[in-house]
Design a protein that fits this description.
The complex is a heterodimer. Chain A is an all-beta fold. Chain A is 0% helix and 53% strand. In chain A, the strands form two sheets. In chain A, strands 2, 4, 5, 6, 9, 10 and 11 form a seven-stranded mixed β-sheet that branches. In chain A, a hairpin with a 6-residue loop joins strand 5 and strand 6. Chain A is globular, with a radius of gyration of 13 Å. Chain B is mostly beta strands. Helix content of chain B is 0%, strand content 50%. Chain B contains no helices and eleven strands. In chain B, strands 2, 4, 5, 6, 9, 10 and 11 form a seven-stranded mixed β-sheet that branches. Chain B has a four-stranded antiparallel β-sheet with strand order 1-3-8-7, with no helix packed on it. Chain B is globular and about 35 Å long. Chain B starts with a strand and ends with a strand. Classes of the chains: A mainly beta, B mainly beta.
Chain lengths: 119, 107
């Protein structure tokens, strides 16, 4: 059974940093691009970042570029999102999701981890 | 960026009704359109991908159609467990973008 479990969320002041983790199990982790999607309280879904299976290619939305760094450790079946320079508008539940291709879609999601940026 | 516009933003229908949700893309995305269902307090779940292919385990009362810039999600015979917010999402180009969501309620 495919499982994705996020952790690392919490309360952080504006300008602070946080590292999110997504632990995967039940599938060949290195064979899949992985993605972070976030959802601000009461709002819709927003794609944030993605990383290819071998970690060689990374993708970011404009608001994340230069502040967030996505990475993965295939030996530990874990993906990370290092977030720095956090802003109030980064407050959201952050979900990790597994990519499937041809066509591209996200077929498994974690339960999410809440990041709250507040002074 | 490709803008995705859903309508309506919310709707209320009776059990057994047919419900249609529309999603419009700001440019041609061919058939690169996915639908997700999100129940309150839960993570999204994939419903339909590539415009019309049902994800594994999704009931056949859900269907998708369209191409180019206009797409629809149809729920025939609405059930109480279908109460959720539905999102379309384009997978044609980066950044990957979602529609604003359609909240479905039961009358």
């Amino acid at each position: 059974e495919v499982q994705l479990v996020e952790s690392g969320g919490g309360l952080v002041p504006p300008g602070g940093s946080l590292r999110l983790s997504c632990a995967a199990s039940g599938f060949t982790f290195s064979a899949h691009t992985m993605t972070w999607v976030r959802q601000a309280p009461g709002k819709g879904l927003e794609w944030v970042s993605g990383v290819s299976g071998n970690g060689g290619k990374t993708y970011y939305t404009d608001s994340a570029l230069g502040r967030f760094t996505i990475s993965r450790d295939n030996s530990k079946n874990t993906m990370f999102l290092q977030m720095t320079g956090l802003r109030v508008e980064d407050t959201a539940v952050y979900y990790c999701a597994r990519d499937q291709t041809s066509p591209l879609r996200w077929d498994h999601w974690g339960q999410g981890t809440l990041v709250t940026v507040t002074s | 960026d490709i803008q995705m516009t859903q309508s309506p933003s919310s709707l209320s229908a009776s059990v057994g009704d047919r419900v249609i949700i529309t999603c419009r893309a700001s440019q041609n995305i061919n058939f690169n359109l996915n639908w997700y269902q999100q129940k309150p307090g839960k993570a999204p779940n994939l419903l339909i991908y590539g415009t019309s292919t049902l994800h594994s385990g999704v009931p056949s009362r859900f269907s998708g159609s369209g191409s180019g810039t206009e797409f629809t999600l149809t729920i025939s015979n609405l059930q109480p467990e279908d109460i959720a917010t539905y999102y379309c999402q384009q997978s044609f180009g980066n950044p990957l973008t979602f529609g604003g969501g359609t909240q479905v309620a039961i009358k």
